[in-house]
Hints:
Largest sheet of chain A: 8 strands, mixed
CATH superfamily of the largest domain in chain A: Ribonuclease Z/Hydroxyacylglutathione hydrolase-like
Number of domains of chain A: 3
Radius of gyration of chain A: 29 Å
CATH architecture of the largest domain in chain A: 4-Layer Sandwich
Oligomer: homodimer
Amino acid sequence: MNTRIIPLGGLGEVGKNMYVVACKDEIIIVDSGVMFPDDELLGIDYVIPDYTFLKENEHKIKALVITHGHEDHIGGIPFMVQSINVPKIYAPANAKELIEKKFEERNINYRSLLTYDENTVIKTKYFNIEFFRTTHSIPDSHGLAIRTPDGTIVMTGDFKFDMTPIGPMSNLHKMAKIGENGVAVLMSDSTNALVAGTSLSESVVDENLGEIFTACKGNRIILATFASNVYRIKHIIETCKKNKRKIALFGRSMENTVDIALKCGYFKDKNIIISAEEANHLKPGEVCLLCTGSQGEPLAALSRIASGTHRQISLMPNDIVIFSSSPIPGNSASVSKTINKLYKKGVKVFTNSMSDIHSSGHANQEELKLMIRLFKPKFFVPYHGEFRMLKTHADLAALCDIPKENTFVLENGDVLKLDKGTLTKDGKVTAGEVYVDGSRIGDVGSAVIKDRILMSNNGVLVIIANIDTENQKLLATPAITTRGYILVNENANLIKEIQNASATIINKSLKGRNFNFNDMKNDIINGLMPLLSDKTGRVPIILPIVMDIKQKEKNKTNSF
Amino acid sequence: MNTRIIPLGGLGEVGKNMYVVACKDEIIIVDSGVMFPDDELLGIDYVIPDYTFLKENEHKIKALVITHGHEDHIGGIPFMVQSINVPKIYAPANAKELIEKKFEERNINYRSLLTYDENTVIKTKYFNIEFFRTTHSIPDSHGLAIRTPDGTIVMTGDFKFDMTPIGPMSNLHKMAKIGENGVAVLMSDSTNALVAGTSLSESVVDENLGEIFTACKGNRIILATFASNVYRIKHIIETCKKNKRKIALFGRSMENTVDIALKCGYFKDKNIIISAEEANHLKPGEVCLLCTGSQGEPLAALSRIASGTHRQISLMPNDIVIFSSSPIPGNSASVSKTINKLYKKGVKVFTNSMSDIHSSGHANQEELKLMIRLFKPKFFVPYHGEFRMLKTHADLAALCDIPKENTFVLENGDVLKLDKGTLTKDGKVTAGEVYVDGSRIGDVGSAVIKDRILMSNNGVLVIIANIDTENQKLLATPAITTRGYILVNENANLIKEIQNASATIINKSLKGRNFNFNDMKNDIINGLMPLLSDKTGRVPIILPIVMDIKQKEKNKTNSF
């Protein structure tokens, strides 16, 4: 029959997960994530997968199936549904609520968002999709078994195995049964494939958090954690109840999570939640402030509390601040800044590097092996992760009796063909990164980013000259303006030199044979570079703007 | 007598160390470092301390004393000697060579750079400075005991205790003797104050590296480490000798280090060093390529080898790449990029997170306690480190019987007064950050950085209008140019809209009462913002340039 598996995002990176399974005129998409840009993508808000392949095969799309509600799995949905016709989206209850919030915020009117649970079976002409419950750092995480005419494809979604979880157990038995019935291809989460052993159980985290609460009975506790980690929050609420503390929430995403969790029934103690004002009227030992900002995000609640700029909360010397989190790579500097500010206020800080008060949501090596053993697939495709994670995960599969030649370490856009139970590589489709900046998708390209990097290093210098080409005359001293290079009013002499040098270059260029605007602009750029480099040791982006006064009278402008 | 201790850099931060000890008309400066800018300081090359205090007290400066040759202790010297008269610089042999290289590179003619060793005593009218050898990740690291009329001040410099070092042992006995004779103030390195236990011995690192060499007999070994870590390099050379491998060096700083090390006699096997070309003619098992680039620096040797852009070295599938290093905070993303590239080439990679093949040069908590116990000072001032490190170090001192009230956790610029053996806080002097960008010191200020941040996020939009104020006329459609915002040629309609909107604003402004240029510019900025935000979801820096054609004929320009 020929079923195809096409990763459009999530391979060679952590983020923007999106996987396509196609058979004849049917396409199922699994997940639709965003990635947060790295430091080099200046000013970019999100990175999403290139949707070209989907756009070109729009008429085949039957459904988008969401494994769980993290941004790297649902964040792309608003952009996707605005550019592609997606007839149905299936999501588990928690993810569905989060997606609806996104639609609300962006005024998107999408009507075919459906819920599934572990017992749902989605049927199309060629596919039967079943689900199995997994454990992850957000509730309602699921893996998929996609029955195709060419064999069963299993995608784990994000997962860990936790034998003593706070929420429901992974459905080991359903996984085992699917495995027994034969799996052609297993695609499994590689995020923590570099980490040996077994991940810390959420119960141990909770025990350790509980000990801090017991030890700090009389102190106000300020606790920051990932807002999406509903089970962690559920436990914190229970711990507060046990310790007779009320909880005040800080940060919009924290409020959203608790809203949704109450709505979905993950916890029920509505009365324990109080307002910031009420919290300020209770004794320190009677409250816990639950905040966003565990990553040191400058505008998040904890950062503002640490800086002393929070509207409602001022730190007191006996406060306890707990980071039930670990810094995502790239955030360690901003987390350090927040911690230093907290130390300066004299409060006591607990972090995960001191005591085990956070656990990742992803499986370590021993758990990854268990997953491979449960499904005992014929072919193995590590997904979700940077190349070294995928490669290391592939090596783990080899230890679990998956022959090396049956393992595929891929890139986004690679096409796998599953034909009567046999998997082979079969070409490539368009895949890549699209930048979202502001409200516009994809119109900030690498040229714009390159300019931003140049300007961020050395600024921009604009030279404006009015010329009269007919009479080969520069009409006045060129005007100079600059940003991010030098301060104009502190560098009057240098500005004068730049003006004079520009005038000389322009006059020479005007009198040259074959005068044209582009040559003149290049002359200005090339002529000024040595001067600027010599005087300041750096060269900004030089933007010459030359206007022909005669042309302008005909209402034309020359600029680039 | 009143001796004063003034930190000008190195407190509340890791970097730009500089400490002043002053008595009457004498000033001794200890160390003169740079700090590498964090991500927010766009385009800045170095951060140095504010030298205002030194400038104002220039005539009192007797000498600069250097503890060791790392950039955060010597990197500021070229900037300092160009703006302040420093009569003498004392440095240990290795640091002296490194400082001379700096002078050479910058064509600085400084003639009073002197060497000291552990037996040197520097005497001035009020001070007697003695030295004690410490262990650190660069040879020739020393601490200072400064005898003043008001008591002895000890500064440890950067240090660790290693009971089985590769180079010479710390001089425990000299430290003990100084301690026995009475120390008024101990200032001690806080860099690793957050890390429990004892640091890994360099001998263990070397043993583990040796095991990799033994296990990979037939493979080419590519090894990246910090170029300044002479003892690590010494051991690698010895391991190569034992394993009958020749060594080729890649990266200028690696070549410099080996040059200086041979000159200073840290190792002698000149013959083991071969050229890249020679290395390419030997069998894989007969060579070791020693590279810079352990931090993923894009232009360093290892990064270019990993990217396949190195002129001389191409990776082969059986190569072994060893990172004998750990990523400095902020570099983990670039290190990951390099590692992913190496995995893609199919080579085997060893990092410190897999096996102990790197050790920090700084003391962990147990070693810090030993230092405090050896000197048993009356007063304790933690230095070198972020606030939380200083604070934690102060807590460690309390465990070692230093009364809390005798410990000072300070900021740069705080003044300590030592009067007949008693230490008190005594006001503040000017201290802060000065940015070096290109060749100019301090002329890039926070206003320029702020512009760079704005431009790096959203770019810049320049609107140029020629007007005739006399006749209240806009002479032509305003010209538009932009960088880092949108691409002009892909957004013709938007550019047209911006031109029209600008024309409308300018015409209105021209006809208003009390016309002036600044108001018009503000009108343009405020008038365009909603349009730009609406159309693109982001607002660039808007630079309106309005030129009065009548004024220009008198050869004046209006720009800002």
